[in-house]
Amino acid sequence: MVVLQFLSLSVNILCLVQKLPQIIRIYRTKNVNSISIASVLLGETSYTLLLAYNLWKNYPLSAFFEYIFLFLQDILLLYALAKYSTNTKDKPTDRSKAYCGIFIFCFYLLASLAGFVPAAWMNLSTILVIPIGASSKILQLRTIISNKSAGQVSRIGWAIAAYGSLARVITNLYQTGDMALVTNLLIGFILNLSIVIACTIYSQDRTVKSSDEQRKKTT
């Protein structure tokens, strides 16, 4: 079906660069403001589980191709967070968490590909992905709202994520019929869109505050 092929192709292309704007912004500014490391770790957990599950089930590559790139981009994001996170009394182990996460995710994926992960766990993992993925996005949303700033969070990246989730809802309904995956993707779409809205609101607030401060200086 032409529509499904277009959706799959567009998701795969967009996911090649989904997290790159945020990663590039971090490397340029050397600042990880408003990015929740707990959110990134949970998000990468869901990507790792989904990638391993889809490979284990031998689903068509077009149905999950983007997870390969999302997995790799989150690894780069975790490395950036480890490199530029400032250790404080409140967050003394951010760097170690990121490095440990990178090792665990890579090890799990290799173990699943080698067939060392039990089938019972592989089936259970798709159910766990729903609360894990949702928690990841809720934590990031809470961080933006509590800081009242989008910081280095990329609105473009989350908009791509929202589109990808919605497109994958449609393609999975037709290609796999796996309702666990569909439910996870639908929840992901709603939360991704919420983050885009929050970034838009607080980016505008910061712009207004900056313009007000400049006016005060000139008067």
Main features:
mainly alpha, 79% helix, 219 residues, globular
Structure description:
With 219 residues, the chain is an all-alpha fold. The chain has one domain. The chain is 79% helix and 0% strand. It is built from eight helices and no strands. The chain has helices at 2-15, 20-29, 37-56, 65-84, 94-113, 119-147, 155-175, 179-218. Helix 2 runs parallel beside helix 4 (65-84), helix 3 (37-56) runs parallel beside helix 5 (94-113) and helix 4 packs antiparallel against helix 5. The model has no long low-confidence stretch (mean pLDDT 84). The chain crosses the membrane at residues 35-56, 63-82, 102-135, 180-202. One of its GO terms (cellular component) is membrane. Pfam families: PQ-loop. It comes from Adineta ricciae. It is found in: Membrane.
Helices and strands, with pairings:
Layout: H1 2-15, H2 20-29, H3 37-56, H4 65-84, H5 94-113, H6 119-147, H7 155-175, H8 179-218
Helix pairs in contact: 1-4, 1-7, 2-4, 3-4, 3-5, 3-6, 4-5, 6-8, 7-8
InterPro entries: MannP-dilichol_defect-1, PQ-loop_rpt
Pfam families: PQ-loop
Transmembrane segments: 35-56, 63-82, 102-135, 180-202
